[in-house]
Design a protein that fits this description.
Blueprint lengths: L6 H15 L4 E6 L6 H10 L5 E6 L10 H7 L3 H5 L3 H8 L17 H20 L2 E6 L6 H13 L5 E7 L11 E4 L5 H9 L10 E13 L6 E7 L5 E7 L9 E8 L5 H4 L3 E7 L5 E12 L4 E12 L4 E5 L3
Parallel strand pairs: 1-4, 1-5, 2-3, 3-4
Antiparallel strand pairs: 6-9, 6-11, 7-8, 7-10, 8-9, 10-13, 11-12
Helix pairs in contact: 3-7, 5-6, 6-7
This protein binds adenosine-5'-triphosphate and magnesium ion.
Length: 328
Amino acid sequence: MRIVGRETECTRLADMLDEARAGHGCSVVLRGEPGIGKTALLDHLAENADGCTVVRATGVEFESEPALASLSELIGPLFEVLRELPARYADVLMALVPQKIDDSAAPAVTGGGRHAIYAATLTLLTAAAARRPLLCLIDEAHWIDDVSASALLFTARRLLADPALIVFATRDVPEFDAPGIGTLRLEGLNGQASLQLLAHGCLAAPGATLTDASITFFTLDDNKDSDTLLSIQVLDRNNRVAASATGFFGQFGDGTTRPVTLKVRSGFTWDALQAGHLRLNIQPHGDDTWKFGYELDLNFSDGDFAPTIQSRLSLSEDNKTRLDPLQF
Ligand SMILES: Nc1ncnc2c1ncn2[C@@H]1O[C@H](COP(=O)(O)OP(=O)(O)OP(=O)(O)O)[C@@H](O)[C@H]1O
Ligand SMILES: [Mg+2]
């Protein structure tokens, strides 16, 4: 990710990361309007966090995001650390590890359960930071589910003597309130930086090639049956398949998150994928209506990253295929 301008913000975040590396944990909320460059700044920070463990979670715009989805996204890469926690903490979070979520997961969290999750999250992130400095990036924080948000804010306020930096990025909306945590407000880029950005378009090198592709499905309140075949294809502007996966992938239960890695074919450039599509097709065995959303993530050889996010979709035996434009 080549970032334009933002010298002040980059320096401030780099300083915070240095402080964190030295054992003075801190956290900050990046606030700014849509498209101002919050995610760009998080990407830049992640790419310049040498020697750190970087974990990320992104809130998704759903009327009813699966409970604990964001926490689960964050915990997945820390599984090795989680396994070594005392059982009273490990057990609370183990059910949230993405690979381990089965159809009965998405535990109901009420009353004391919340506090157990807060304490377990703090313990996990402290333990991860003790191994290697930890950079924890929470994007679209205004959309993360309530329990994940509370657990992360609880943790952020207490990770003061640990090598950890937690950065939340949120639109300037009241949904994400973070009392006690400092704010870094993003204003528009200055004239020169805007011109530079305009001159480079979205800044991806048009010749950069697709290197990795993955899609994460968020099933809402209507599951995908285990015997419904799912075919996923990323198509370029000429409808050639650039990345794909086909399989049953098991049942996608209500309220669960399922990542699927796509097989990438070589030689597909950013340029060719502009104006491309994501094609999803299901072949149900009998009746099946699946209600879901997804985030498709495409990574390119120059480090650029393009997400396509859709919510409130439905496929069924009467409506087996959808074709969505790639969003970049
Ligand atoms: N300083 C910058 N340098 C390079 N690219 C930038 C910069 N700021 C924004 N962009 C580009 O502009 C587009 C929008 O930025 P970005 O997605 O980071 O905004 P955002 O604040 O996260 O928006 P949202 O609230 O919708 O998530 C992206 O393609 C991003 O790469
Ligand atoms: Mg963003």
